[in-house]
Amino acid sequence: MKLNSLKRRMTAVGLVAVSALAGVGATTALSGPAKAIASYEKHCAFDVAGNTAVNGWRPVNSVVRVTNNVGRYVVVNFNADAGVDTLAEIRLGYRIDAGGIQTPGAQNFANHTEYWQTRQSMVVMYVPAGTHYIRPYWRISGATGKNGVIAARCLSAEAYTS
After folding, report:
1. What single-letter DSSP state applies at residue 33?
2. 3-state secondary structure at position 142
3. In terms of DSSP bridges, do strands 88-96 and 101-102 run parallel, antiparallel, or are they unpaired?
4. Would 84 disulfide with which of 79, 98, 148, 151, CB 3.0-4.6 Å?
5. Are 109 and 121 contacting, i.e. CB atoms less than 8 angstroms apart?
6. Coil, helix or strand for 81?
7. pTM of this prediction?
């Protein structure tokens, strides 16, 4: 009697497992491909730009577009090869459309090192409903005459994560 009861339980567990795997497979096959970042939400460029401490905030030659049905928080990623003089640093900010420059996260993008390095910044910004453009800005924080350079960079804004 115990052997038949054990066989029935094993059969039931096996059927549940097979059903679950079949459901996951069907969901995966029918739900479509994973969403990629839309082309207007990403931009890469490979030019070189310099800045000095006296210039203040300067726009980075990169911009992305975000279109929202409702206002939402958007993840903005920016990376670049960067170098900066000793006793100076590169600071980052972001502007939505023609609004003021915001510093919604860590601002210190680069400190001096012996060699250039690839730097990365990720911030979360609130973007209102509608179509908006996000552009990074950078400045050199340091004494007059201090320089910084950025090159080979990418910018992306992810409004949807599903």
Report:
1. S
2. strand
3. antiparallel
4. 148
5. yes
6. strand
7. 0.75
Residue 70 phi/psi, 5-degree rounding, is: -135, 160
Give per-residue pLDDT as tens, 14-41.
554 545 455 544 444 444 455 567 777 8
Please report, to the nearest 10 degrees, the dihedral formed by the alpha carbons of residues 111, 157, 94, 80 taken in order.
30
Is the separation of the CB atoms in 110 and 119 below 8 Å? yes
Q: What is the pLDDT of residues 53-64, one digit of tens each?
A: 999 999 998 999
Tokens 């203040």 belong to 56
Q: How big is the chain by its Cα radius of gyration, in Å?
A: 25
Q: What is the pLDDT of residues 106-151, one digit of tens each?
A: 889 999 988 889 999 999 999 999 999 999 999 999 999 999 999 9
